[in-house]
Amino acid sequence: MDARFNNYMEGQLRGNLSDIEMPDSYYAKAETAYAALTKYLTRRDSEIRQYDPEISLQGSIKTGTAIKPITDDGSYDVDIVCNLLHLTKSDITQKQFKSLVGIEVRGYASKHNMEHEPRDGKRCWTLEYADEANFHMDVLPTIDNTEWHRRAMKFKGLEFKPEAKFLAHTDKRRDDYEQITQDWLTTNPSGYADWFLDAAMFNEYRTRTAEKRAYASVEEMKVYEVKAPLQQYVQILKRHRDIWFSERPNHSAPRSIVITTLAGKAYEGIATHAGWFEDMSQVLLTMTSFIQKDNEGYRLCNPANELENFLEEWSDEDASFFDEWIKAAISDLLSPGCELRNDFPKDVRTQMRRSLGLPTNSGLVTRTASELLRKISSLSHHKTLSLPIVDIVPVSIRAEKCWGGGIFRQFQSGDPLPKEAELKFYAVADDLKHYEVKWQITNDGAEATKAKCLRGGFYQGKIVNGRRFRGEETSYLGEHYVECYLIKDGVCYGQSEPFIVNITNTKESYARQ
Fold first, then answer.
1. pLDDT digits (tens, 9 = 90+) for 444-470
2. For domain 365-501, is the CATH number 2.60.40?
3. Other CB atoms within 10 A of residue 251 CB
4. Contact 408, 401 (CB under 8 A)
5. Quick check: pTM over 0.85?
6. Which residues of the chain are in CATH 3.30.460.10 domains?
7. How much of the chain is helix, strand and coil, in % rounded to 5?
């Protein structure tokens, strides 16, 4: 693939993520709600305190792949495990166990004056939070089942990690729901999250991000502040799934854990990571190869529990629609067969955003142009950058001035300046070394017009002691403008706000500064 095309598509897809992913503030709300429920369930007079309850997060909050709902009345799911360490399957039926945990969940809802009664679902108790985040908290009652499950795995010749922790959970659809039995459904939520985050190389990206943002330690950085590429791929695919199947209401959409598992397996299978978009392409193109079919049906085993088949209920129709969806995702998100040109077809960008349920009135993913930028762009001599602009890397300008042989001092956009002053403009952004820095200088006003020096074109800067800057002098009265662009492989990844150079006849006042 062409490097410019890959970088352009990466910019478009990553630029859409802010409209898709769960906001950091909502992750913080979910953590607060989780902490409050944990405190209540483990309090001294709790009905389940004697069984040593252990509360933990699972699901998309744990794996960092949560996305926004596609409708205004949709909700975010927060998945919680309530594991009782000192209770066994020989002590209680699934129904009795579900009711025991339900007493505490109902008590929590009552204490906090929640608008809705907790819902007794197939496996979980569901708490509905009536705030702007519109959370649904699913509480899954579980009993430790590690030893029994390990014996079952050994019997079938399956391997497991020594630290694996298997949990038996309730399911009211089972025939033995009201009977004492050892045959409960079993899962390993913490093991699954560990597998996925390892596949995503999450700790490596977290360390890298912490260093970039100058955190004192990795631990200071919230887990939800980091998004590894694999997490982003899953978020994009889940959103595309939601939109595609919402237009086909008669067919069941694949579960998020199926998408997450297939994407993780495909990402693990990449021998050499070539780049963000290249890796996403590889994931999408190879996902379906990890679905197996035998005489018993379709199979995709939980990587953290080989006895759990995520596709146990799949039919041939489910598999067929999954294949159709994958083909649609490849077409909408990868645009195979296209090449990047300055007249890159608008309908490709539009189709990408439409397939993600996003507004399509803007062709490029970019920030909203400021009034100043619109003013400058309207000047006839202000050139237009002849490259695709995705504008996902924040960049700003720091300026310094020197007049009459003095020292350079910082000044702000719009500050009055005299003629014959020396100026330096520095590009300020993360990882500048990865980009070419271009400068655009645009003059305006009567003196520059009379001197036929309106300029408006693009210029190279200099690098001194690792700092990227552009030197200029003040020559003509009026307001003039400096802009900075970050360019890589023929794509502009960042564009600064224009910096105003305000040249006035005020040498006396300047000398007093």
1. 999 999 999 999 999 999 988 878 999
2. yes
3. 15
4. yes
5. no
6. 1-332
7. 40, 25, 40
